[in-house]
Design a protein that fits this description.
Layout (H helix, E strand, L loop, with lengths): L9 H18 L6 E6 L10 E7 L9 E5 L4 E4 L14 E3 L5 H15 L9 H4 L4 E4 L17
Parallel strand pairs: 1-6
Antiparallel strand pairs: 1-2, 2-3, 3-4, 4-5
Helix pairs in contact: 1-2
Length: about 150
């Protein structure tokens, strides 16, 4: 029998995991290492920038996966397509709607690495500080739950 854990509220669980990770990393003396700008559906860039944590999975089987953690618990996931695969890179960049095994494992390994004096798998700041990292506006991917019609007839 195979059992996979599915939280009842995956978005809330993702935010809980990420904010707890960020609190521990700040206690360990690290800070957000990436400037972020949001790009709307029409290509407009938001004038305000926020800061986030950019992690890159160092394991060879990860295929260059990156996770961008925002302070409010949202996570932008990037996977670099294999060279010559002919895939659109934008197809490999999404906002997560809940925690996945790769992210949870990476966050635990990142904290362990930071506790032993490592970088915690955070990208080097000079690579991410020069220009803001552009990500899709989070509101584009939000789908609100359809509820029962509450108007009286």
């Amino acid at each position: 029998m195979s059992y996979t854990y599915q939280p009842k509220f995956p978005k809330a669980k993702l935010r809980q995991i990420v904010t707890k990770y960020e609190a521990v990393m700040q206690t360990l003396g690290t800070a957000p290492n990436c400037s972020i700008a949001f790009v709307g559906a029409d290509g407009s860039v938001s004038p305000s920038h926020v800061r986030g944590w950019l992690l890159k999975d160092p394991s060879p089987q990860a295929g260059g996966q990156r996770y961008l953690l925002l302070t409010d618990g949202d996570v932008w996931h990037e996977v670099e397509p294999p060279a010559g695969a002919g895939q659109d890179p934008d197809d490999q960049r999404i906002w997560l709607n809940g925690p996945d095994d790769d992210l949870v494992t990476l966050l635990a390994r990142s904290q362990a690495n930071a506790r032993t004096g490592g970088s915690g798998f955070l990208e080097v700041e000079e690579h991410v500080e020069l220009d803001p990292r552009f990500v899709a506006d989070r509101r584009q991917g939000q789908h609100f739950r359809e509820g029962p019609e509450r108007r009286s007839r």
